[in-house]
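Ticket #4471: structure export looks truncated?
Reporter: QA, pipeline team
Priority: medium

Steps to reproduce: submit the single chain below to the structure queue and open the exported record.
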Amino acid sequence: MATDGSLADLQGPAGNTYDKYGTRNPVARVLVGRFLAAVQQSVGELRPDSLLDVGCGEGIVTERLARAFPSTRVVGVDVADPSLLEEWEARRAPNLGFAPGSAYALPYEDDQFEVVTALEVLEHLERPAEALAELARVAGRALVLSVPREPWWRMTNALSGRYVRDLGNTPGHVNHWSRGAFRRFAGGAGEVRRVRSPYPWTVVTVAR
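Actual output as written to the record:
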């Protein structure tokens, strides 16, 4: 497994499997909107001066956070995929930048960012506990983490006709957590302060 931000770190496609942030499906738009609101609330409660978004994909949510909190220095990190690099260049802003890197070996010092986020990332990693420890290493105050909430995620996919042959499992998802199981997992990095459950996700805030 590479640790330099190469595609060898990733299970599944780089970026989003489908454009859920740009979908015109009204139900999906409502669900995604609630998820984004939960993430923004979780970050807003922390009022960080700096934020590292690990596994940022195209940078859609990273850019949203940078715009929502213009006084926060925001950096997005993900694999060095050419399609992602193009997206990053188009999204850069005075308080927003991007860099290639791996969740297993982040190119930053201990406690370098007040808050570290990993949104829809850990379910793709073969060694999630190792990645969680690395996220915690560079987080000075807190982590905000999200994963699909199982079994509801796969059930929703299957009922929508997506990935039926794989019983609703999204390509690249190698870890599957219920709300309670993910809370216990996230607690390995610190004190779980808040758990939000915008269907069908779990969003956890962990204090360092």
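Status: closed, not a bug. The export was complete when the record was re-opened. Leaving a note from the reviewer for reference: The chain has six helices and seven strands.
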